[in-house]
Amino acid sequence: MNSLLNATSNMRSQAYWVVHPLDDHPEQKRDVSAVGPMAMTPSVRLSLLALRADLILMTSLVAYHFLGLAAALKHLSS
User: Fold this and answer.
1) For the residues 10-17, what does the mean pLDDT come to?
2) pTM for this one?
3) How many distinct structural domains can be found in the chain?
């Protein structure tokens, strides 16, 4: 019981200082040129290829829809 009281009194005596990022010292940034290429696992490679295919498909669907709207507007104006 006494050790529990000591632990809680030690926790209360600690002070935490909050420093705003603009007032803090700038941190050291990583040198990107020193980092080599990352190794990709097959599942990561497959996920990235699926994402690329999805983006290409969605872009082509938007272009198809835009061309369809342009053709419909062309027929309405004449």
Assistant:
1) 70
2) 0.50
3) 1
CA 67 to chain centre: 33
Q: What is the 3-state secondary structure (H, E, C) of 18-69?
A: CCCCCCCCCCCCCCHHHCCCCCCCHHHHHHHHHHHHHHHHHHHHHHHHHHHH
Average pLDDT of span 57-77: 87
pLDDT of residue 1: 53
What is the total residue count of the chain?
A: 78
Side chain identity at residue 73, one-letter code: L
Q: In this structure, is residue 11 part of a structural domain?
A: no
Higher pLDDT: 50 or 34? It is 50
C-alpha to C-alpha distance for 36 and 10, rounded to whole angstroms? 45
Maximum pairwise Cα distance, the chain: 92
Domain extent at residue 57: 40-78
